[in-house]
Amino acid sequence: MKTRFSDFDPTKFSFKDNPILVLEQFWSPSEMASFRGAMEASKWTALAEMPLVAKVFSNCGNWLKAEIGAMEARGFLQRVGLPCVAEYMESFPDIKGRHVNFNYYSYKAGDCLPTHDDTDDAYTYSQGHRPPTRRLALVTYFHQEWQPDWGGELMLYQEEKDKQGNRTLEVSDCVAPTPGSLAIFTVPRFHRVARVDPLAGEHKRLSIAGWFMTEH
To answer: Would you give per-residue pLDDT tens digits along the chain (216 residues)?
Structure first.
């Protein structure tokens, strides 16, 4: 489902009926400016400085990641914690804990993310941790401008089988990184971030992305 946030009723939407939700004009200009300011003040870590992650996501450029400050994180969760999100998260039985994990991301020309379904958290397991189960993935955009030629689309796939029973992936949605938009989709779901084109020049694809998770 894709619609403007002003036309959206989160009490009538269900992720069980519509596993992909794209809301345009979710953030106000002042909210976007506030998050960009927080990003500018953040300490960024490049993919090359995260060897376990870089091993999983090889040949993906050298995108940047930063932690969200406590104050910004509270405001962010208040805004994205929609009733339809809470309803879906609470639909799973025997929940022992509820978790979120969101970070800032900056993609420049040449950066991308390969096809994955958000269930392979090998770099967390390799550190001796058993991660909670990812239920909903979220990405939302804070750059001021983005042109169609600049790439960086969120590509979502549906899994199909051919006549021989072999698994194939077909594109179900192509979500442009439109400033101020928000995308939420159920996990597992194969997806990738298309490579940012050199035509983007010095423009950065600025986002917050992560998951709503449950522990059982």
So the answer is: 999 999 999 999 999 999 999 999 999 999 999 999 999 999 999 999 999 899 989 999 999 999 999 999 999 999 999 999 999 999 999 999 999 999 999 999 999 999 999 997 655 555 566 789 999 999 999 999 999 999 999 999 999 888 888 889 999 999 999 999 999 999 999 999 999 999 999 999 999 999 999 999
Question: What is the C-alpha separation between 91 and 131, in angstroms, rounded?
Answer: 19
**Residue 131 domain boundaries:** 2-12+28-215
CATH number at residue 98: 2.60.120.620
Q: Is the whole model's pTM more than 0.90, yes or no?
A: yes
3-state helix, strand, coil in the chain (%, to 5): 25, 35, 40
